[in-house]
Design a protein that fits this description.
13 helices; mainly alpha; globular
Length: 325
């Protein structure tokens, strides 16, 4: 009963967050409904620190999602884009804002490899630049909606500026991200274009943390959560064939993930529900097992890449980045 009392106020905040996504499912923008969440997540995470960080996350999400569309299909441009994201995420740790930056970058990391959905209006289909602007617009709408929810229901919930990461550790963190994201982006965009290999990039962004110990914990949690969430989503998508119901279940899973995030629950639990949500909202129903399996495998590749980087860095550099003092 006590747990229900704690969760209920969070649900009153979280449930309205996903209204735009559900509405988008009944418009020509339904193929880009996931971009609503891409705009919501960094804003909500930023709001937990300060409203000004939430405001800053809105244009950031819009710009990154637009650029992801424009660089798609160009390996060199994709690599440079992901290297710039690596610098952005890494250097934002100087102010403790790397979680906000990482969540702003995860949808672009997927799009640069898998490609973007084409939106048409009454038979008219905008070109690549038009599609980029549409993606940016949908992400901005999601961010503005999250800002409205925050201003209405979370006015006194910001905890203040996050703890800053020491520059020495930020240098290591940024360098690791640049090497991993740069190499993975080039390989994926050159030989695995139009696949779900973007989940390698996504996993690197979410698992890599400024310190060894944080990264090790995330490695374990991400691997467990991704496999469990992927398997669960595959079972649901096999049983349920109605796309509207699948969207509803996927949205519900994302709601649960948001509640867990706001409750600071174990990352493994969050990873289970967010993985299931993405699969259910975006999977092609005709080959859901194949796509789901690919996502799980690519996530494991990303986890292995981070694990190898941590082990190598610790062997060569010692334990100098094991604590953020």
């Amino acid at each position: 009963m006590a747990a229900i009392k704690r969760v209920w106020p969070i649900l009153l905040v979280v449930l309205p967050l996903f209204v735009p996504e559900v509405v988008a499912e009944f418009t020509p923008l339904r193929v880009d409904a996931a971009l609503v969440i891409a705009g919501i997540l960094p804003v909500i995470i930023g709001w937990t620190y300060s409203p000004r960080y939430a405001v800053m996350a809105i244009p950031l999400a819009g710009i990154l999602n637009a650029l992801a569309v424009l660089v798609f299909g160009h390996p060199v441009a994709t690599t440079l884009f992901m290297v710039c994201i690596a610098f952005m995420v890494g250097l934002s740790a100087l102010r403790g804002l790397h979680p906000v930056a990482a969540f702003a970058a995860i949808q672009p990391a997927i799009v640069v490899i898998s490609g973007y959905h084409t939106v048409s209006f009454h038979g008219a289909t905008p070109g690549q630049v038009g599609q980029a602007l549409i993606c940016a617009g949908v992400a901005v709408i999601g961010g503005l909606w999250a800002l409205l929810i925050g201003a209405t229901l979370l006015r006194d919930e910001s905890s203040g500026p996050p703890a800053r990461v020491p520059p020495r550790i930020v240098a290591f963190y940024t360098g690791a991200l640049v090497l991993m994201l740069g190499a993975a982006a080039y390989v994926a965009s050159t030989w695995f274009l139009k696949t779900t290999a973007g989940w390698v990039l996504l996993t690197v962004l979410l698992v890599t943390r400024p310190t060894y110990d944080e990264s090790r914990q995330m490695i374990r949690e991400r691997a467990l959560g991704t496999v469990a969430g992927g398997v669960g989503a595959a079972v649901v998508a096999t049983i349920v064939s109605n796309s509207a119901i699948l969207v509803g279940i996927g949205t519900l899973a994302m709601v649960v993930a948001a509640v867990l995030q706001l409750q600071h629950a174990r990352y493994a639990y969050f990873a289970v529900f967010v993985t299931a949500a993405i699969v259910l909202l975006d999977a092609q129903r005709s080959n859901v097992f194949q796509i789901d399996l690919q996502r799980v495998l690519y996530s494991i590749v990303g986890v292995a890449l981070v694990a190898a980087a941590v082990a190598t860095a610790e062997m060569l550099l010692g334990r100098s980045t094991s604590t953020a003092s």
